[in-house]
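Prompt: Have a read of the protein record below and flag anything odd:
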Amino acid sequence: MTNHKHNHRAFTNRYKQKVNQLITNIAVSKPILLDKGDNGGFVKFFGVWDTGATMSCITSKLVKRLDLKPINIRQINTANGPSNKNTYLVNIALPSNVIISNVEVIECDIIDGIDLLIGMDIINLGDFTVTTSEEGSTVLSFCVPSMREIDYVEKINSKRIND
């Protein structure tokens, strides 16, 4: 069943092999009004999708490049223990121009070459799926807002009944 009340936005990223990290192109800007015709001053980066992170994170390099000003301080818990970090407000453009506006992100260290970590604060806004083909490729697909619940157990059970 499709929900026609919402303006759904989605993207799919295909990897040629099985991957251990879900990395996509992502752009970030200061939180300006996008409906005023401004392109938002987006800067392109690579981002990693992390279901283990409660908040999305950005590096200090990205904070400096965008000249962001802190809006809050939050405590984060990492393998190195708890620490207090600045948070910032940004707009995030995911692939296919799926834009999430006014996201509070936290400043943290991320793996080399990655300046943005997409956490559950964004992932739980919609449907997030990762599949692996028999040929060995990985597919990441994301849609906001959610279109429907996906239940693989129900699909398998209904197939058994219909066979």
The helical segments are 60-66, 120-123, 152-162. The first strand starts at residue 9 and ends at 15. The mean pLDDT is 87.
